[in-house]
Amino acid sequence: MPLAPADGAAATAWARATLPGRRTAIRFHWKYQDPDKRWGGRGQARIAPPDSLRFDYVGPLGLGAGAAVVVGDSGVWADPERNFRSLIPAARMLWAGLGIVRPPPADAGVFGLQASPVAIWRFVEAADTFDYRVTDTAGGDRLLEAEWRREGKVVARSRTQLDTHAMPASARIDFPEVPARFELSVVAVDTAAVIDPALWRRRR
């Protein structure tokens, strides 16, 4: 839909307000499916504001474990790499799945629409367009939806339900071209998490 040009500083301030105020660990159950397989298990996302994310997962009975680190919009490392081929290129969508919006680059085109209870932001960076739609509910919950398009083609979509504390309760990320879907259901949020510095450098 057409959106009016918006102030980049306002968009950046809005995006930064979606960050947790301190180091946070989010534990969740997850499910993944594509045409070849269905898989599930448990995982944990450790967030160190303003831009660092450690993502761990393990399959049923402790099988199929993996981890990755994302800083800003880029994956630093992933182990095993093949398991993150969809998620790491879509780092902004992984952030959105956790209820966090990455601010637009300084040279991005910024557009927006504010019509309570809905707010829409669009960040355009060369061939990539990221749309974010936030809907506030009467009960105080919030729904964050995101879409990534490259040269007009949808690469990924996400839908995240946030609780009254602006923490994710559940999320879904879809990759239409594969097609594939990654879902998570949050079981606990620790806002006093202690993150070992070594976790940013290696899997174990």
Explain this structure.
The chain has 204 residues and is mostly beta strands. The chain has one domain (4-200): outer membrane lipoprotein receptor (LolB), chain A, CATH 2.50.20. 8% of the residues lie in helices and 51% in strands. It is built from two helices and 13 strands. The protein has a 13-stranded antiparallel β-sheet with strand order 1-7-8-9-10-11-12-13-2-3-4-5-6, covered by helices on one side. The mean pLDDT is 93.
Helix and strand content put the structural class at: mainly beta
What is the molecular shape? globular
Mean pLDDT: 93
The beta-strand count equals 13
| Largest sheet geometry | 13 strands, antiparallel
Count of alpha and pi helical runs: 2
Give the C-level CATH assignment: Mainly Beta
Please sum up the structure shown.
The protein is mostly beta strands and 204 residues long.
Write the layout of secondary structure elements.
Elements (H helix, E strand, L loop, with lengths): L3 E2 L2 H9 L7 E10 L4 E11 L3 E7 L7 E6 L2 E6 L11 H7 L11 E7 L2 E8 L2 E9 L5 E9 L2 E10 L5 E8 L4 E11 L14
Antiparallel strand pairs: 1-7, 2-3, 2-13, 3-4, 4-5, 5-6, 7-8, 8-9, 9-10, 10-11, 11-12, 12-13
Could you list some keywords that capture this structure?
204 residues, outer membrane lipoprotein receptor (LolB), chain A, 13 strands, 51% strand
